[in-house]
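Lecture notes, continued. The same structure-token format from the folding unit now serves as the input rather than the output. Read the line below as a description of shape only.
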């Protein structure tokens, strides 16, 4: 799993070092419309100086507690198995992908223009990289019917507003 992550990030970083092939930030009419304007995203190298310290912080604070064990037993437990030293690029890479996002109909797939080429990142790739369960629900699974609270019905909001 981590070799796939390393090669995927390496490929995207290599493409980012080449820069976008789009002259003067002009939109590429062969691709779908972008979510953000073409002159509103970084066009050169990624700033890779970020720290993935939040997972380490949560691990240190909640170590040996039942709350941490609850997190480890959930679908997010695999996040604590990621090698944090190899992940500092991830936040900037994800920001770069999102800032170049293309508008498509599939809500479960991210299409982005990276170095002038379309790039697909879907649930399957996300599951492969993170190890989180991103496949189909088990047979007989019924998702909970959570209803959102309306802000207008909340007493505190009524008092504040």
């Amino acid at each position: 799993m981590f070799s796939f992550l390393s090669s995927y990030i390496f490929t995207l970083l290599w493409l980012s070092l080449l820069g976008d092939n789009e002259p003067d930030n002009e939109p590429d009419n062969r691709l779908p419309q972008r979510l953000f304007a073409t002159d509103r995203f970084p066009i050169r190298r990624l700033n890779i100086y970020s720290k993935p310290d939040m997972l380490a912080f949560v691990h240190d604070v909640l170590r040996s507690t039942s709350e941490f064990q609850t997190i480890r037993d959930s679908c997010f437990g695999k996040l604590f198995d990621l090698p944090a030293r190899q992940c500092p690029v991830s936040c900037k890479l994800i920001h770069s992908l999102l800032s170049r996002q293309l508008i498509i109909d599939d809500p479960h797939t991210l299409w982005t223009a990276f170095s002038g080429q379309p790039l697909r990142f879907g649930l399957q790739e996300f599951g492969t990289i993170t190890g989180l369960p991103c496949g189909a629900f088990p047979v007989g699974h019924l998702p909970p019917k959570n209803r959102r609270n309306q802000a207008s019905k909340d007493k505190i909001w009524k008092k504040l507003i």
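Point for the exam: The CA atoms of residues 20 and 115 lie 4 Å apart.
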